[in-house]
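To fix ideas, we close by showing one paired sequence and structure record:
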Amino acid sequence: MVVSSTNLNKKEGFDDNLSLEALSRELSISTATAKNWVKLGKLVPTISDGNSLYFAREYVASLKKSIENGENFALKSRRNKKYVSGCGVYNSYVSSNSKNLYVVNSLVDKIHSLRIDVNQGLLVSLIADCALKFLFSYQKVECSKDILLSYIDGNVSKNEFSFLIDDLITDKKSIRDSVIKYPDLFQSEYIYEKGEDIIGLLYISLRNIGARKLTGAYYTPTKVVQKLCDNLFSNNDYNNKTVLDPCCGTGNFIINLPSEIPYKNVFASDVDELAIKIARINYALKYGISDKTLIYDHIKQVDFIKSADQDVKFDFIIGNPPWGFSFSQDLKAFLRKNFISAVGNNIESYDIFVEQAIKILKKDGVLAFVLPEAILNVSAHNAIRKFILKCSSIQRVDFLGDTFDKVQCPSIILQLLHNQKHLITVGTVVSDANRSFTIGTDRKFEDVFSLNIDDFEYSILQKITNISSKVTLRDNAVFALGIVTGDNKKYISSVKTPENEMILKGSDIYKFKFKSSNNFIEFKPELFQQVAPVEYYRAKEKLLYRFICNQPVFAYDNSGVLSLNSCNILIPSIKGLDIKYIMAILNSRVVSFYLMKKFNSVKLLRAHLEQVPIPKVRGDVQGEIIELVNSIIEQEKPSDIEYLYNILDEKIAHLYELSDKDYDFIKASLINTRKYLF
């Protein structure tokens, strides 16, 4: 799915100026980051109207260009990672044995070597060239390599499919200019391949990578499309059933539908005009149809979120909705008025698509979407999970891991049955790279959908959750981010001086204690992009933990040491529980198992930590735990540390009232995970 860029309203600024909010959307940063950059002098407002700041459109356009070109290093931070310049072949999009993959790679390599800027005119020209040669190949008719120029000059006989090419080349002068300027780019030979979206591959490979990410466009690899279609249609009757892909992009899902589904039952839409033109070509060639009216009626350029007809229902809705699209303030207002899942400041586009799709499913209709795994367990998606709970059951979940080219985001295929009943998990099929199983228990979900655990694992989680006496960190702790400098190269030194002090990264943190770092900083909070209150860094006692980690790793600090944002801070304040006791609980195998199985996240999020049940025990029991913790902190020899940790860990398992069988299973399930003890 590709969503067109939002037009900025003039009311957001004064005439030729943009507001701070509008600038933030243009640069793909948060408003808070933009304010920090203004404070640091990285952004310079044109107008200051009381508390409001405005920036010249020309200035913003220049900033965007300098970021895209990599010229502006001051603004090239992790918060601006969506601005990636250039194009690149999305190899995983099609099958590795595709006959056209080498052709597309060669073309993109040629564009890179010649340092050609692929503007819209050249992009359309190259797509038209590919599409035209595809049509000839489909009809088993030979054509010359320079067929496009001949076609626009009227020297090629037209046929029943020609209107599909004419849709692409509306600006013949631009096409002609591109072919004449870059004749070598139009010498590729394309061969039509059934089930391969080569025109789509060319489109996404030639588009600017940054532009793809800004629109939430993550095109689905063919192997994932085929997996979704195989699982969906092999287990559900599709005779005389309608299918809709509301975010079809260039039509990869369409061309991979079972051939037995007739074209009259297949519908698709997208807001991207060029993508829809390609999808129509793919639809026409898959089914061998050339009825222009029918093709336009079935493959439409419409906004599914705003224009879906609630009275037209479908049996199957499939696809990959946009991820992380940045909505305008006006559209956010519309979404909050019309969608239950439109909550918070950052409304997630794929949540909205899931809700809209369920609304237009027939009773007992099925939805199958490729989605980020976060929809199952991140608190920001609570609203859409509650919506699903009330009206649908989960037929199947496939955990895919990192699926998309150069994108670190674990993904799933979520298959829902819209039975208009409260969710029941009995019979849900779950698979990942290592196993597949069917859930045999009716699980009760309150906050997250813990699905990638079998029935025995679920029973252990229930025991951990339901211990007789417990407390949590929710409303009982301070959580704080480490320092975000905005420019580590500028502020972090490897040389100790009288003016600077040690600062820790996440990689310096181990269970119970941290290692001395060779990174030093002059602590000047007013210069940094983001800092927590100073008293949190300088707390008498605090816990430091790795933010990027698939398990909890907490270290004790009573020295007021500083930390960067890869190393966050926890200051618990649970009456009657010592901070070192709490650290021992968080560092245990039981809690690692709990967090890994319940949330399956590569980040240690506050919302997850706040749910960990911490056993409430007497002071003497805590004393035994704390004595072991102190011994571990004092030890230097790895074998001694591990020996003491195993004693401590077994004591903690008993606090959770687990059986020997339960604890042995937990240890076995974590045997290949890193211990982070030394």
Q: What stands out?
A: Residues 1-13, 76-86, 212-216 have pLDDT under 50 and may be disordered. The CA atoms of residues 84 and 432 lie 31 Å apart. DSSP finds 28 helices and 22 strands in the chain.
